[in-house]
Amino acid sequence: MTELADRWGLDPVFFWMRDDWRPDKPVEIDDNGVVHVYGYAECAEVYSDPKSYSSKVEALLLGDNGLDEMLTEGTLTQADPPVHTKLRKAAGRAFTPQTVAGLEPAITKVVHELLDAAAGKDCLDLVEDLSYPMPVIVIADLLGVPHGDRELFKKWGDQMIAAAGEVPVEIGDARRDDVDVAAALGHVPELLDYLRAHVVERRRKPREDLLTKLVEVEIDGERLSETAVVNFARELLIAGHSTSSAALGNMLLCLDAHPDQMARLRDDPGLARGAFEETMRFLSPIAGSSRATAADVELAGVKVPKGSLVRLWLAAANRDERQFARPKVFDLDRDPNPHMGFGRGIHFCIGAPLARLESRIAVNALLERFPRLRTDPEDPVEFRPADDVLGVRRLTLLTG
């Protein structure tokens, strides 16, 4: 593990990638009162109790200067039951497994068109040439917004990622006031205005797209508000493409570091499913998640007061020896593989089926078209600047 961390130049903030890291306890409280959860069972316990562990973390971080409630209306990640239950039901009716499965021909076409455009190069910039534009195009087409605007999406996404890297975990007197938490939570005015215009247009003139389904869906006789539709679309567009992009980059890194496994996958494309799931465990893009305690609780024998920030280190939990045999080994055949790369419980990522499909299609296309695909030792990988998101920002792959 440490050898890979050094090879990739990983920042020490990704502590779980070091062989010498061992948590003294599965749950610890630091000097700032932040609760750090490293254990698999303990993370699962937090996920299973949304009443005690609230998703409304921004209120804890921002205090009286919190965001307007309208900015979180419709966001699955910032909602608790019963609001979350209603939103999830609405999203499930619009974003069905059949809808995702039906995208396979379109995703395959997009992947090969992007690789055709990069043909003739001695190397690929995986992010620029494939892993960024592919999910943006797919989700934009699904929502019904022009994928030609992907440079706008990239600008907004980069702004949010940069802001997320600056959000403090300290609370109380140590809280910083100079960071753009609104941007970190995806509340970029230009993006919201952009999506709102499309939602208004769908109410006036419905189409055969996901935005129209979200506008028209009814739960208990009520439709989602305009704001809720905008925020849900924003979450899907930005979070969805970011996770898919990072997952594909991480998968290529893992396969390159394990050439025997890459050779097996090249010979048997059916192993792509296992490669994706093991990547989500071994080098999960969503390395951490946060909750705020809504009551006094006890976790693994640690008393946690109400109003505490709880950081779930999912990447560490995915290496818990109590749950996974040989957790530091990248194994395409790992089965079962109940990783937490997509969260757990009511907040299990709604876009997981799409990310799985995109990554399977993309990695098989890459290995089929480029028999000598490998990383460039002269051009080190660059990662995104955030401690709870582990994904490549730039990855050069040699093709010749």
Please explain how this structure is put together.
- By secondary structure, this protein is an alpha+beta fold.
- It has a domain at 2-70 and 78-128 and 245-398: Cytochrome p450, CATH 1.10.630.10.
- The chain has helices spanning 2-8, 40-47, 57-62, 83-94, 97-101, 104-117, 126-131, 133-143, 150-164, 181-184, 189-204, 210-216, 226-257, 259-267, 272-282, 314-317, 352-369, and strands at 27-29, 35-37, 53-54, 123-125, 218-219, 222-223, 289-293, 297-299, 302-304, 309-312, 374-375, 382-383, 392-394, 396-398.
- A 5-stranded mixed beta sheet has the order 1-2-10-7-3.
- Helix 11 crosses helix 12.
- It starts with a helix and ends with a strand.
- The model is unreliable at 167-179 (pLDDT under 50).
Uncertain runs are 167-179
**Level of helix content?**
40-55%
Main sheet, how many strands, which sense, barrel? 5 strands, mixed
| Count of helical stretches | 17
What's the CATH class label of the domain at 2-70 and 78-128 and 245-398? Mainly Alpha
> Looking at the structure, what is the overall shape?
globular
Distance between the termini: 28 Å
| Average pLDDT | 87
| Helix-strand makeup class | alpha+beta
Q: Topology, please?
A:
Elements: H1 2-8, E1 27-29, E2 35-37, H2 40-47, E3 53-54, H3 57-62, H4 83-94, H5 97-101, H6 104-117, E4 123-125, H7 126-131, H8 133-143, H9 150-164, H10 181-184, H11 189-204, H12 210-216, E5 218-219, E6 222-223, H13 226-257, H14 259-267, H15 272-282, E7 289-293, E8 297-299, E9 302-304, E10 309-312, H16 314-317, H17 352-369, E11 374-375, E12 382-383, E13 392-394, E14 396-398
Parallel strand pairs: 2-10
Antiparallel strand pairs: 1-2, 3-7, 4-14, 5-6, 7-10, 8-9, 11-14, 12-13
